[in-house]
Amino acid sequence: YQRRVHGESVGRCDAEIRREQYRYIVLSGGNTLFEGVGARVSSGMHSLYKQAFPNEPVVPINVIEHVERMYATWLGGSMFGVMPMFSHMLISRSDYADSGASIVHSKCF
Length: 109
Hints:
The chain is mainly α. It has helices at about 1-10, 20, 35-50, 70-80, 95-100, 105-109, and strands at about 25, 60-65.
């Protein structure tokens, strides 16, 4: 499953930058703290790269496991939340109660 998700993510990038997307992979979130996750991702990405570019030399794949990665998504969200362009996407409790989950699509996309 994990390899498929990574492969699909890279595959959705523009063709010109796909090869570069394999070079730097940043892990974030609490589940990345499990022992061996970085090595598994690196190994899987090497295999995916060989499948995607069979006639090319393998690029160095760097899996970045920052020590604070458990908080990375929260930090990114908090930075995004203070940006001026974010204010029109805020959903109040009453908005959600009136419209349900569909309000996310009308306000954020």
